[in-house]
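User: Can you predict the 3D structure of deoxyribonuclease II? Sequence below.
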Amino acid sequence: MSSVCSLLLQVVVATLSCSVFNAQISCRNEAGDPVEWFVFYKLPRRRVLEEGSGVEYMYLDSEGPVWHRSRFLINSSQGAVAETLNQIYKGQAYRSNSSVYAFYNDGPPVLDYVKGFGHSKGVLLFDDSQGFWLSHSVPHFPSFPERGYIYPSSGKVNGQTGLCVTYGYDQFIHIAQQLAFVYPRFYNCSVPPAFVSDLPELVQLCGGIKPPLDKDKSVKFLFSTRWTKFISFVKSERFVDDIYTGWAAQVLGVDLLVQSWQRQGHDLPSNCSLPEHTMNIKRVRLPGSVLFLSEHDHSKWCMSESYGDDWTCLGDLNRERAQLWRGGGLICLYNYQLHQAFREAVDWYIGC
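Assistant: Sure. Here are the predicted structure tokens for deoxyribonuclease II:
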């Protein structure tokens, strides 16, 4: 074979390989390309130094864990969140028998609020190879599949966060088992017959049935498609305690700084009584002099207070009394750059 033909063959193979990789279900970055994981931080409208639009967001991912302001708006059809969810909307995965999808939110779009479900919000989409789990803090989001990508106007006011991770198929079996503890409100989902035997918990959850549990909480390792290890903490309503103070901080062995939405009179104070402390963040500062108070931030995240411990978690629950009795979870990653990005975002917290 001539060198020219050999070169052409290599180009064709590389092109086909790239096309196959791009066709796989995964989290998508700002350009719409596959990415192992990403975090978005939707900025609140009300800020200390300026008034925002309510649809701007910060972004970082596994390829570059440093905050930068997205050139897109979260209510547009471009950007990481839209590109990821458009695999359902534009790809019409909800009409396919070759993939599973599930939308859950304790405050779903259009439907009335119903008590009894876990305080949790997210999206699953995967086939028998791989897919993504996007967990987030935005009420009334995302929209039903047949409506296409719509960001709710109610989601403009407060800050919001979300974490997307690309997992192999076997990890979604563990994820479904973890979600059984949370008992999220699934408002739209599909588990085709080929997946039913592997995912009995997800089938029950999609049907509004609470799977039986033999304990009140669970912790599991989850591995991304590139073998990055995440830790999933989930609790049922039977574990009546603050997930940050009574569990995660003690298991991780670190003092935690926690950002969560706390309504006045319902909030839990910083806790310094246990071996590992939990302290409330009161003001957040992101690059570009973006400064805002926690009372305008509906996001839920935490990280170890000390540099060098490098734990960062994103999750479902606020540090509020009522949420001691709610199901919910945290997804944690030990990563120096991610921890640094969040740790440097803490402008003021109530310490011990």
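The CA atoms of residues 100 and 299 lie 27 Å apart. Residues 29-349 form one domain.
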